[in-house]
Specification:
Elements: H1 2-74, H2 77-86
Length: 103
């Protein structure tokens, strides 16, 4: 009788292990699906943020180029002379002093 009882217990343990394995693998499968969806969502959000940042960088670069052009136009000698003449100032070489820096 004891031999028969041991076989039943052994068979029951195998069934419990099988059920546990099925539950565990099901859990891992569901976890994998959720993590894949989550990572894909994060990837999409990061891609959108990268595109927004690149767009902002492009806008700032265009603004910088426009400002550089304005600076070049504002520092032209002819423009400075025109503004000085309009203000009643005159250019005289006698008032110009050259300073040498270094040796």
């Amino acid at each position: 009788m004891k031999l028969v009882e041991k076989r039943k217990v052994s068979s029951k343990r195998r069934i419990d292990f099988l059920r546990l394995s099925i539950v565990f693998l099901s859990f891992v499968g569901v976890l994998y699906i959720f993590s894949a969806v989550f990572i894909e969502n994060m990837n999409t959000n990061l891609t959108i943020e990268i595109q927004k940042t690149q767009s902002q960088i492009a806008e700032v670069e265009v603004a910088n180029q426009a400002l550089e052009s304005d600076i070049q136009n504002l520092t032209k000698k002819s423009r400075v002379e025109t503004m000085a003449n309009d203000a009643g100032l005159s250019y005289s070489k006698d008032n110009v002093i050259s300073v040498m820096v270094g040796d």
